[in-house]
Amino acid sequence: MTTIETSIRVNVPVQTVYDQWTQFEEFPKFMTGVKEVTRLDETRSHWKAQIAGKAREWDAEIVERIPEQRIVWKSQRGAINEGVVTFRGLSEARSLILIQLRYMPEGVLENLGDRWGAVSAKVDGDLERFKTFIEERHCDWSRARQNLR
Question: Where on the phi/psi map is residue 25: left (φ > 0), alpha (ψ -120 to 50), or beta?
Fold first, then answer.
């Protein structure tokens, strides 16, 4: 299995970051390759993605959840992956997201991409897109609240 560890700082409060991250159905808006996420129940979801040009699916289960602090997941069926995302408040308006991801590449293309660092670069890019997504959305929410006053 391959392990990726990365992090990003976002200019949004930790509660907002955590709340948005738990909206798995919105992951296709910022995660390249993720086509659809369907929530099955409180702890399980079904994922559809395009990985190295190949359609892949898996079920994931949240095995630990500490609100506004961490989420640990493990795939149950399909593409093998597991990991933890940790959320830390840096101030009232800034947060840190840390991701540790383990996955099993399948086939020649995935193994080559893994060796060339393609998956690590993809995860970093997905985090950058999440940062933009949540910061723009938070800015819009803040403006809307100010207009209501």
Answer: alpha
Question: Which CATH number is associated with domain 2-148?
Answer: 3.30.530.20
* Domain spans of the chain, in order of start: 2-148
Are 20 and 142 within 8 A, CB to CB? Answer: no
Helical axes 118-148 vs 14-21, angle rounded to 10°: 120
* Lowest mean pLDDT segment, chosen from 10-14, 91-95, 120-124: 120-124
For the beta carbon of residue 77, count every other beta carbon within 10 angstroms.
Answer: 11
- Phi and psi dihedrals of 85, rounded to 5? -120, 130
User: How confident is the model over 125-149, as pLDDT tens digits?
Assistant: 999 999 999 999 877 665 555 555 5
